[in-house]
What we know:
The structure holds two protein chains of two kinds. Chain A is α+β, with helices and mostly antiparallel strands. Chain A contains six helices and eleven strands. In chain A, helix 1 (about 20-35) packs parallel to helix 3 and helix 3 (about 60-70) runs parallel beside helix 4 (about 80-85). In chain B, about 55% of the residues are buried. Strand 1 (about 15) of chain A pairs antiparallel with strand 1 of chain B.
Amino acid sequence: MRFKDVFSIMGPSMIGPSSSHTAGAARLGLAARQTLGGQPDEADVIFSGSFAETYMGHGTDLAAAAGLLGCAPDDVRIRDAIALAEAAGMELRFGTELRLGGHPNTVRFALRKGDRTASLIGCSIGGGNVEIVNVDGFDIKFLADCPTLLIDHRDMAGTLAAMTVIVGRAGLNIRAMEVDRQSRSGRALTVMEMDQAVSDEVMRELGALEQVDRVRLVDLNGEERA
Amino acid sequence: MRFATLAQLTEQCREAQTTLGRYMLQEQVRESGSTEAEVFGQMESYYQVMKEAVRKGSTEDTRSRSGLTGGDAKRVMQYREQSVPSLGGEASMALAYALAVSEVNASMGRIIATPTAGSCGIIPGVFVSTQERFGWSDAHMVEGLFAAGAIGYVIANQSFISGAEGGCQAEVGSAVGMAAGALTELRGGTPEQAVHAVGLALKNSLGLICDPVGGLVEIPCIVRNGFGAVTALAAADMALAGVRSVIPSDEVIGVMKDIGAAMPEAHRETAKGGLAQTPTGKAILGELRKKGGRP
């Protein structure tokens, strides 16, 4: 099911004018910020499909900038978000591109903070709901509506078992899970959508696994964590 | 959620001898792991935002950022005081309130997407006007919002709720169906009658394209919200009178998906067709671009 619960239909509470082009874009900006792990110094935001055709009229660019600043979709700062982002020292560039065969409301973020980079492609699927379809070049799908672990690791036998043992021991249930790898024995990304909040301790334990490079947490309904 | 179709939803409500609204509340509690008080409280806070948007839009200046729209809700409010509206007092109030919330949305004010921002006026228009008229409690209205959510949940998963995917029928059409079904239940109709109201309402918007002038959620979105609220009242009345949707509502939802999938891209929120490409629509777009793209 693309829409999981009653509040994906009723809501969100948001600043107008469009749930897909304003609220959805704000949430995708926030997901991109969380994927980077903080406020970007530099951000390229590339719209395609209906986003590309109508983003100025809908304030899609304002909303995406607001998300990158950490604003929720009902934050009145959305109205002035580009100016606020620039005042905060963020270098923002907007563009459009043609993407064939994708969802009509798609946006691609390429972000940099210091020497760290992240990229995210996401779609606004209606009513402010979003679906992320690619992170850092890996084709993985998740909704970001619950605590979601992004685990960068090497493709190696036993890795998934070791990771699921850690979350299982902590009493956490995995709602959905996806893995994509660059190549056999190469870099891989595992995404776990969780039913419960994930503690810093669990994040540390996962990060301590020998084959794991990095653990990130994306949760559009949760509090931001450093 | 333990239902995927309106038929399953009705069946489960019948078995549990409960309403669509109470059933959805329980399902949400089960699905989220939150308490009933938390889940109910969140929906109640949404209802307060809706009421505030009605108040703001029917009494304050709501000129949109583009300057293209605003003030229509106030115009209808004034007209219904000075004249006898063809719709009568009650339906014209639903019309005015729906316009009000849509105008607040266009002015970048705060609203609740139900199911989307483009269609955010219909449910508040129907709910707030009927609450005033029948003297219902907020708690009763919040149960009605859960009923609307249950209907929308089925439509969203079996079809679309975004104009970019399925045209205006997916946004305004879905909202009218949700409002019609919920109002039928609020007025004491059975789950079966509520579901008939959904099918009756949806049939009236099949094929409606999404063709916003200049790509803005203003023309024709705002007036379609006004019309939508009135249609929801009519569908609920038919269902309460015993009129049935001969084509089962789940099949109507299915055909909405087929029609949306067949709709040309120009008619799915790209502003490349329909009203957006009329001579006046194009002239408005040109004016907006001259102003630097940002209205």
